[in-house]
Amino acid sequence: MIRKLKPAVKVSDELKKMLNDAIAIEIAASVQYMWQYVQVMGVKGRAVASKFKETAIAEMKQAEDLAERLWYLNGTPTTQPAPIKVGESLKEFLELDTKMEEEGIRLYKRMIDQAQKDGDVTTAFMIKEILEVEEEHHDLFTTMLEEI
Ligand SMILES: [Fe+2]
């Protein structure tokens, strides 16, 4: 695999670690939501099943974007997901997913600060866009929770 010898930006190890923490969360979220899609049951569950699938795919795309950025910055993307908790009922799925999104949101806010500190405007901009999507996911899961 060919590496860029000198990326245009040099960032702290801390930011690289945060990128890997984010990748781990996004991989975990992707698997968690997809398996919930597979396991969802009941009339209410069926009505919202596609949301789990759509969100799972969005999370994997975010993992890809983060991995690309980390690779560009001379880091190696992790293959290890954060803990995955599928749950056993629709309510539990949504509670666990809300927590997963909250964890991501907390990390992304810290990452934006770190990227700015490192003078890495591109990563800061990218993370802001991901944060916006994560807030939408959080809103989706909490809205669904209110409806069941
Ligand atoms: Fe998300």
How would you describe this structure to a colleague?
The protein has 148 residues and is mainly α. 76% of the residues lie in helices and 0% in strands. It has helices at 13-39, 42-72, 90-117, 121-147. The longest helix is centred in the middle third of the chain and has 31 residues, at 42-72. It is elongated and about 55 Å long. 34% of the residues are buried. Fe (ii) ion (FE2) binds at residues 29, 59, 101, 104, 134, 137.
Which features characterize this protein?
148 residues, mainly alpha, binds fe (ii) ion, single chain, 4 helices
Compact overview of the structure:
This protein is mostly helical.
**Unreliable stretches:** none
Report the strand count.
Answer: 0
Shape: elongated
Give the biggest beta sheet. none
- Give a list of the ligands: fe (ii) ion
What is the N-to-C succession of helices and strands?
HHHH
State the helicity in percent bands.
over 70%
Task: Report the span from N to C terminus.
Answer: 49 Å
Name the structural class. Answer: mainly alpha
**How large is the share of residues in beta strands?**
under 5%
Helix count from the secondary structure assignment: 4
Integer-rounded radius of gyration: 16 Å
Overall pLDDT level: 94
